[in-house]
Amino acid sequence: MIVIVSTCEDSWGGSEELWSRSIAFFQSKGLQVTVFKKKIPQEHYQFDLLHEQGVQLKSLLPAEGRKKGLFRQFGSVFSTNKSADGAGGDKKRPWFLQAEDVDNFEAEIKNLRPRLVIISQAINFDGLAYGHVCNIYNIPYVIVCHKAVDFYWPEPGDRPAMRRVFQDARACYFVSTHNKRLTEEQFGLRLPHGEVIFNPLKVSKKIPFPDSHTTGWKLCCIGRLFVLDKGQDMLLRVLSKPKWKKRPLHVSFVGSGRDEVGLKEMANLLELTNVSFLGQVQDIEAVWKHHHALILPSRSEGLPLTIVEAMKVGRPIITTDAGGSAELLEDGVNGFIAQSNEDSIDSTLERAWARREDWETLGANASNHVASVLPEVPERDFVDNLLTFI
Which among 22, 85, 177, 271 is least surrounded, fewest beta carbons within 10 Å? Predict the structure, then answer.
């Protein structure tokens, strides 16, 4: 049996793609798969598909359980019962181990005794408690980190146990070189068993570049509507400048999230008629038939799937240097790279606008480059690597 633990707080996120697409390859080897998540959403098509595949799905929190959200993610910052050394109320255990979902995982895992546990982390240490439990019961595990944040570091009281979880993992996977380096710096240790991997894509081919003469120029901003990471608020402020309001440029926001209402109200306040909110879209290839480039004003990232997918279909990228976003890009060749602030985003968008007639060529460069570095089937390579630990 293979156990997968997802720490993604949303119903479904980009961090779910790798493990979910890997399941068929595990099953082809005769391995059963069980998936744990704090809350398995009801009537969600992705989890319905997993159920149809014969995957056992288990919630680690009861249906009536309080959703921790950011207060769990940043819990030891907001905690009111923290001891002097940074730990929580139970001084026998570091704070990050003191959670109902961790206790429930321990109760399950000691009976299941899987051959391998895959801990898929939305960031770089929000699932280490599950690794700690695996260590207690001598169950082999690997860690997958989908993001690392420069301003979010482990609490002092949590560090020793967290370091041990990284060190004892069979492998530690990261989606960008930046995320691997930052994680090593945050924990003060090298990870010789660390590796940078790619996520699978939801697009498969180039998509013809749309005409701009009748529709104007259209940018697409794809991602969770969560300004702490994705920075859509900065982009709205840039687009509210008179010069951008006058130009034939439109930005479509694709996605949903906790800040959706706030961003829409902000756009109304700024009297923006050059933006639209398309919500969650399943057919991303259909979106690219009508958009000329991707813009992603992120504050923190792993390596966004949206960047790799946009490059794959033949679109140039306008983004910040957050996380690993710029690792596939060459400024002025297949995209344009800004720093994570409004002035830089504005000036970088200005540079891109000046070369808008070259966007089709830059998009072709992007597609060729990503084709040269992206594995044909990343999830298959991932599983082949994991099978060496069983």
Answer: 271
